[in-house]
Amino acid sequence: MNNNKEIIKLGQIEVKFLLEASDTNGQVTMFEFSVPHGIKVPLPHYHENFDEIVYGLEGTMTFTVGEKVIDLEVGQSLFIPRGVVHGFNNLNSQTAKALATITPGLLGPEYFKDVAEIVNAGGPPDIEKMKLVFKKHGLVPVMNI
């Protein structure tokens, strides 16, 4: 089991992995992520080869999944099937935190570390570099949803 509680910081967003693929024989990965209020997350995307389940832990995050806009609140869950374009923002007045489960476990800390390099470089993120990182890790960026 992964006892490494490293927090990966992507600008103001924080990600902490609880289970990595190596912990679950590749079946699932699980991480917590927190998004401060007012943060708009760039690059809506879809996953080619994995599904995602998100569970609200604190605050409210606004997800767009396909054509639906969903406010994910504490104790609510959301299923995002592979191939469905989605993105999220925190448009509310407090930090929001959620638990994400990826199955099969194809998305790990490496993705977030690669994104962090771009986001933490200063200035607006290089969208073309972000697109390459997304594609490398099985995410397909979509500019408008």
UniProtKB/TrEMBL annotation:
Family annotation (InterPro entries): Cupin_2, QDO-like, RmlC-like_jellyroll, RmlC_Cupin_sf
Superkingdom as given in the UniProt entry: Bacteria
Protein name, entry field: Quercetin dioxygenase-like cupin family protein
UniProt-listed Pfam families: Cupin_2
Residue ranges occupied by any Cupin type-2 domain in the UniProt entry: 34-100
